[in-house]
Amino acid sequence: EVDGQAYPSHLVQAFRIGRDTNFDFMLFTPRRMSIANSRNAAVETALLHECDYVYFTDDDMELNVNTLQTLVKRDKDIIMAMCYIRGLPFSPMVFRWVEQEEAVTKIADTKVDGRLITLWEDCEKSVNEAGLIENVAAVGCAATLIKMDVFKQMKAPWFYTGTSNTEDVYFCMKAQQHIPGLTIAVDTTVPAGHVLKDKVILYPKNAEMLREHAKQL
């Protein structure tokens, strides 16, 4: 059920992983179920097969052929290829820490050391020389690499969709609570495109144009 525009990039990426790397990798493609259940099932399968990583690629994402290789080299506990949320106002799928009184939009009820998280709208101003955004509170899991050691230090369910949080934000905040020094980052050098309902693909470079187009409509 992968989107027809995104599917070719998934095939090409898998081919390039097989041809250009020495990675042993397996594909886990469950039947349609809730997002949280699907992600938990993927982690259980990865644990069963003693994998080193889980690499989530959602079925509406157009992927760079070198995304996995690039993310592995970054050596972060959790790292997402830069992508934007497909609903207006097309914000980065990146979250930052805020003190409770600073939380304009509360993303999750869960707190870590008294802090909450909110969307990091201007996160791209914090890109370092290596093309990374670091010290991130949470990311989405649309095109995201996670070390299996993270899951091994937590109890299931790793992902849970609540009334005020998505399953990926829940996971990141739970991981922060259980793992001191956890590293969460975003890689802007291999951005992933998010397929919109009208089949336009949303990338960081065209987000502003699509915002203006939506306003005109």
Q: Keywords, please?
A:
single chain, 217 residues, alpha+beta, five-stranded mixed β-sheet, three-stranded antiparallel β-sheet, 6 helices, 18% strand
Description:
- With 217 residues, the protein is an alpha+beta fold.
- Helix content is 29%, strand content 18%.
- It contains 6 helices and 11 strands.
- The strands form 3 sheets. Strands 1-8-3-9-6 form a 5-stranded mixed beta sheet, with helices on both faces.
- β10 (193-195) and β11 form a beta hairpin.
- The chain is globular.
- It starts with 6 loop residues before the first helix and ends with a helix.
Stretches where pLDDT falls below 50 for ≥5 residues?
none
Strand content: 15-25%
Mean pLDDT: 91
Summarize the main sheet.
5 strands, mixed
